[in-house]
Amino acid sequence: MKKIFQYIMLAVVTIVMASCTSDIEETTATTGKNNVQLVVGEFPAFGDSQTRAIGTTDEGKTSWAEGDELLLVIDNTFYGKQYATFTYNGKSWELTSGELVYREGDPAYIPHVYYAPNYKWEAGKLVLKEGKVAGTDEYIEGNARITGNGETITVSFAETTRKYSRLRIATLPNEQITVDTEYFTPAGSSDMEQKGNYTLTSDVKGNAYLYGTFENNSEVTVKYREAALTTHTFSQATESAKSYALDATVISANSAEEIKSAIEQKVADGKTTIRLNLAPNAGTDEFMAIREAIKGAAPNDLGTIELTIIGVETIPEEAFYKMLQLKSVRMSDVKEIKKYAFKECKYLTVVEAPSLNKLYSGAFKKCDQLSKLTFGPINYADARNWPIFEYITPNIDLILSDYQKEMIETDDYLYTANNDRDYAGSDEHNSKNFLGREFKSITCRYPVE
């Protein structure tokens, strides 16, 4: 006679939850051979080991939810290995695919049981579901045994040790981000990726997750659209079953007052990295709020604030005038920088504006410590009121778009692009000149130093 565990579909199936620190100690007694139970322990929580403090911790998933699946294997002498999937319906676990079959009296055991949402059984192997990517969800192997005269499967994750860590990325809620990785082994895989790229969607709390192992000196970069939010290098390999937190939070406010309040709170909490998501047409009021908030919260700080601005397309006149707190400004969407926008930002060292097309008078006047500028393909520059680069160090590395054209002086100190001639390889490029200014180096397709 053989016993078929697929009878679970017709039986009263009971789930018993236990603490994540002990095995299941009690099961519901069975009344007949057709009454098969799947008894599952509580979902195991991660330990916490944060790379950076980003506010309250988030445990992530801590309990079973409707739709969760368990993937089981049963092995016995007569029938060999059998594979099945059980799905949680919110109250109990149901057999939803495959079958678990063995002959009564024949030794049978369950060598593997997995919680692996990205995977499914296919020809006796765990394979990725369509559209799923390894490393974007859990891959836990638990313990299971057949008990109670062969009528109960008891599954425990209480003593399970994950062979990977979790990276929690705190960012904008309900938004898509991209994550570039180096030397990362995704959960469920044994192959380390030298370079990887992941597209993740954050939850309502603004958390997105990667599961796997980062090696010593491995790097991870988080981007929202084209804006790099943060880059982190691990100083040692991540530990299995530990959770690490990465700060890629972004202030997304609707008014100047909200912007001011949010920045003040960030600076008061000791944050020096500030990321803002602004409307494309954000103007003088919003930038005045940014300036007042940073100056008011950190009046004596010099060159400490690393500012990232997303969304806005124009930096207004004098937007950051005399902001001694600024160390770097990254503006992925900005197309225009108006007159005197960064005038007398004496401790500003890095400006990145890869979409920039237009520059105006005195934009970087008296920026004494500038060392790196990154621009998009400039097609218009108006220096009629004051040179764009004036009273600044010559030790600046300028990075231009590969598509930069030569700039023609059509009027005194008014420049437009000559669309018939590339800047790369031109006499100006080779002499390290751009818009009447000599730089330490200019990179346009290739560097000239």
TrEMBL record:
Pfam family, any one:
LRR_5
Residues of the signal sequence? 1-18
CDD domains recorded for this chain? BF2867_like_N
Give the keywords, sorted. Answer: Signal
Keyword Transmembrane on this protein? no
In terms of superkingdom, the source organism counts as Bacteria
Q: Does the keyword Transmembrane apply?
A: no
- Identification of the protein by name: Leucine-rich repeat domain-containing protein
* Protein source organism: Leyella stercorea
